[in-house]
Queue: 2 jobs
Job 1
Amino acid sequence: MRSRQYLSYRRWRWMSLLIAGALVLGACAGGAEDTTTTAGETGGGDTTTTAAQEPETTTTTTAATVEPVTLQIQASNAEYLNGEIQIWDIFQAQNPGVTIDVFAVNEDDQVAYRARRAGGYFPAIEALAMPQVDIGTQDLYVDLLTVDTEWLDRWQYDVRTAESEFTGGTGLRSLNPLSGFWFTWVYNADLMDSLGLDPRSVKTQADLQKLLVDGQAAVDARDDIDFFWDVGYHGWVWSSNYLGLFPLPYKDGQRDPYQQASWSGEIEDPSEDPFRYTFQYFKDAYEAGLLPDSFWLRTWDDMEVSYIAGKSVMMLHGPWVWDKMLSENPDARQLGIPATPPLVEGDPWIQYVASAQLTSGYRIPVENLDLPEWPIILKAFNFWNSPEIVALRAGVNGSAMAYNFDEPLALEGPQYTGILQEFQPGGLYEDLIITSAAPGQDVIAQYKNEDSGNFWDWQWSDTFAGVVQGEMTIDEALEWFHNQVATDYTIP
Amino acid sequence: MTIDNGAGPDAAKAPAVMESDRTVVHRGVRSMHRQRRLLRIGILALIVLYVLLSVLPFYFLFVRTFVSTKDSTDLWLWIPPAEQVNMNANVGNLSVYLNLDIGDLKEQWDIPPTEYLDPRWNLNRVSEEYGVPEQTIRDTLRPHGRFNGWIVLLGNSDFWTATLRTILVAGLGIIGINVLGIMTGTGLAGLRHRFHRLIYATFLLEIVIPPFLILLPQFLLVNKIQALIPGASQPGLVRDVSQLAVIVGLYIKGGALSTMIFTSSIGAIPRELEEAAEIDGASRWQYIRHVLLPLMKVPIAGLTVIMLPFFWNDFLQPFVYLDSGNTTLQPLIQSFTGQYTTNFRIVYTGVFVSILPLVVIYFLFRKWFISGVLEGAVKG
């Protein structure tokens, strides 16, 4: 009977109402647990409520009971969310009534997050992984020199003036104790041994070339390895790191720490532009069959996965892939060598480290100044930059810090133990010259025209593709680059 | 002896000819049967192939929910073998790359929650420092060797509440867009005004405005309106409900597609039906309930088929408008990926699980959708 297939209208209506009511209650239950006040316009659940006692290593601050308050604080990276939650638990234990809601925004979410910020949302403390502050956005953040910011003397450089020197503005909006991103060669030591090669015997650029050629020949004879030197494309890595690394062995490539003159338009003649060394390097390597086919279309993630899977032997990479490898294979042996060997044996190696993240540290949105919970927000900010907590943060992400500790920091991060410790006195590369500066791209960021795009993102990959395939000369590529800078930036 | 049957000299040949004709006919019939059978087999093979091609992506997606990042460069036709627990693994790395909550680990290993568990310690050291038996650690982590994505996702209470919220906003969105579409369509179809076309075109204008273009001003506007609601600026039920209401409101607001579908469908209904209902004493509501709605099955099914996946899979609007603790499925799944790393198992599991309810809904209501489409086909 057809009528059996259907509920009566009355019953259907009641059931619908009941289901809808249950859904509303269930859907809101997760987010409605927290009924405290919050910094800014935000709130919601997802809070960390675990009370943790203050460990012996932390700074002693008076545990004062305050009105219940929830502070939304951004994690440095999505990767370190769990580790940083543990650290913020200490602050919660020291400050009963304060709940810290730690959230993370990853690379893909940045655009949506920034739209939300532009629409009025603001957390108590914000962290951005990429440099995004320029003169135009300075007013959005608290000038840390005008409030009671503690621990500023701990930085290994004059952090009070660093930002104003960088941007030409005034004040200090951002604090980051990280020493910066170190891009070095990283290799799977077991695979390298199986190929009978030793990168640590490299003394010059010519040695490095020979290693790459021998390595590729050895890999070609094996079915289980795809690439010796693996390369993938990542807009930020290529434009802020790769471009500036390869000119460093050359005298005119050492003109300034990170080719800022090239970005600023000071150098216009392609034949004088240090970036020509980078193009030439990749062109030669591609023609010699040392790079993956169409490497400009190969994603950075694909490259990393290949390395982790043991299908690639070495890469020129930053800090995070070392841990990534260990997470999948805790027994993996990884070692490294500095990025740029000298041209002549006996000359010092030069290792570039991207600036001390002046523009990409932690900052406080200026709206917080007007909130009743401002004192606790500042207290949280000072807690985060205190020596004991910075030491814990160093442990979480395994990075070296540009920060003075009371006792030497025993870093156990794999990049540190695999290569960075060799830069210390007594290490294999103790004579190495460390050069550090803000990438030229970041320096001119403040002059970027509002309606211009990020030409340095995927368009760079097209340009590299054109050069290595012979569709474009290096001079033409550099001319394109200078034209793009002239179009997209108004540099005084 | 010859028997003359009067059929003439050719008559003797007749049975043979008939026999031969019958054989030919039989052969023809057999051949036709064979051809038909072959055709049927061919069609069946095509259908099977089509079904396989349609189902295989889901199958591979399912298999991928068990494939770790390390193995992700290989093609896996079946679930890979479980990874063994390695006691040299760092707690921090496990936490980052397997999305494990350090607080949960401490609880399972009877480590006081107040202890700061150094993320650089490996499991052997944790075992030694806190006296946690190695077997306990192995037992805790062993299931993650294969089922990490499933355990982390399904064990996360946020996942279930996010699923409920998604069902809620998608369900209310579908109901709302259909109800409002029918109302708009009824109004526009019955409109006899010199500005009729202008009003109709104004509704359709929405289709040419890219949603990204109005994201920011719309967000500002919504923020201002939300600020008028008492209690919405602080965490709690009022804030959560008002945020979800915003999402539903954005889904159902003056949709060009629903207006187009319902205006044309309702416009095609003979006016005499409405007049007949009126003559029979039906109220406006009775006309809509008993006459209009049954005739709207096709457009309702069509609009639902188009809009449900859109609402269900929406990432941007829930991400922008909802707090992280009050979010829906897609932003939650996205939150499992890192800045530099991705635990592919949890992402694939999240994607797989998030499409399951849609598949179930389409299976449950397939009769409606198909009958709706067929009804439309017969009626032309």
Job 2
Amino acid sequence: MNYFWIQLVLIVGAVSLAFMFIRRWDRANTRAWKRIAFSVFVIANIYAILRPSDVTWVAHKFGVGRGTDLVLYVMVLAMGFLTLNTFLRFRSLEKKLTDLARTVAINEGSRLNEERFDLDLPVSVPVKSNGA
Amino acid sequence: MTVSPPDIQIAARERARHPEHGAPVSQYDDVWLVIPAYNEGQVIADVVEGARKTFPNIVVVDDGSADDSAKHIMSTGAHLVRHPVNLGQGAALQTGLAYALAQNGAQYFATFDADGQHQTADVEKMVALLRTGEVDVVLGSRFIEQNGQVPWIKRVVLRTAATVSPTARKLKLTDSHNGLRVLNREAAGRLRITMNGMAHASEIVSFLAGADLRVAELPVDILYTDYSRAKGQSLINGVNIIFDISLRERGRR
């Protein structure tokens, strides 16, 4: 059997995974592509459910023995993209959270320390009453 | 505002009064100690007051501690900055530096551990070297002089880290993971720690290697107490650090 096509597809998939990691993505652009990919995925899904034997036919064209195997290969790739996407998203969220928390901490801290150390303030500093 | 009985606040104010008002101006008025603290309630007040005998200006960053660290810090004369959530030591250092940079007259910035393993005498030596104006950054090293305090396994791993790291080699560092550092205003202002976790030590070294700053190392004494040993970095965490760093290098935009 000729494995060329499936090998090409899998290698291209793996390489674009690496690229996704390194390249700076234009937000809107990437999102559009993700949505297109998702739509294609849904349509392919419905089609594969209605005509399961066609998947095997496509698999044969790619040089894969069974339709199930093709689905498995594609799933591994999709899983890779998903993981990476999640990782990148988490990292950017973490950065935002850090910036936010830092701003809050420094603002609060400046206020608090001014209150604690400023001698001009009356001694009866407003302390949040919790019985004290 | 934090919950803290008024008497503690007043005590803190009394103590703060000394260095800043009335008492003779310390020769270290332009030095700020940045101490990141995470669940260090047991020791933080003693460490801070010990350090304040020499250095009047201290900012402690409470990194979202679950214990009563904040209360203990409030009882000292140190400035307190609290992360609303736990972000990690790297983030706490960056926050502390940002806070200290905004203070009047701050010229030198020291990163100092909360568990009491660092000595203020070492910071004085490092500041003195910075004051000569010949260097921008002074890093502490446990390995310039063999003093036998570092457990041997830790010594092997840390020496290996310093030897295999390309950036540490470029700077000819003997100890790339020492928490005691003193930076001048220029260096501190340019430093941007983005690794929130423990990988910030490597990040700082690679920043120094990439920037045209003059870096020197000075031997420092580390007190490995039972407390600091229990709190300190476990070696297995080194795996996490290597992972974080390699992801950062590749994921850089």
